[in-house]
Amino acid sequence: MISEHTKHKFHLQVDTKLGHLKDVLSWFERLISPYLPQKTGWQCEVALAEAFTNAVRHAHHDLPASTPIDLEVELFPNFLEIRVWDSGKPFDLKAQLLANEKNVTSIEKEGGRGLQFIKKLTDELQYLTSPDYRNCLVIRKKYASLNSI
């Protein structure tokens, strides 16, 4: 029987500064990566980097740098869930993904592909708005169960 009970839960809050990306990735690598297969850990790191960067550059582009971004990671026996919380204006994830697919960008163009990377590297992608007007990008990635979890 597959259990969906959380085995490990981690939280980090940082200000809206791209300079915190290094801290975010170090935190993830130090606390979460030891529990994941190497390839899965790398895919989740890239997805987290893209999600954090999108929150800073897009969701919080007109908000003070002191506006917090909350990062949550939960490890379950067979999947990992990453949640990136922001306070920006909500958007339609499905419409944005569809628009990005229609407007295939040049490989040389910087930006505009973050959501596509996240979608391709992970198994589930959702975007929710909470009653307190915060938004949450929810990323799920399945992996083979490890004994150490």
TrEMBL record:
InterPro entries: Anti-sigma-factor_SerPK (IPR050267), HATPase_C_sf (IPR036890), HATPase_dom (IPR003594)
Coiled coil spans: none
Record bears the keyword Lipid metabolism: no
MF-aspect GO terms: protein serine/threonine kinase activity
A Pfam family reported for this protein in Swiss-Prot or TrEMBL: HATPase_c_2
Keywords annotated in UniProt: Kinase, Serine/threonine-protein kinase, Transferase
Domain Histidine kinase/HSP90-like ATPase: 17-141
Protein's recorded name: Anti-sigma regulatory factor (Ser/Thr protein kinase)
Organism: Hyella patelloides LEGE 07179
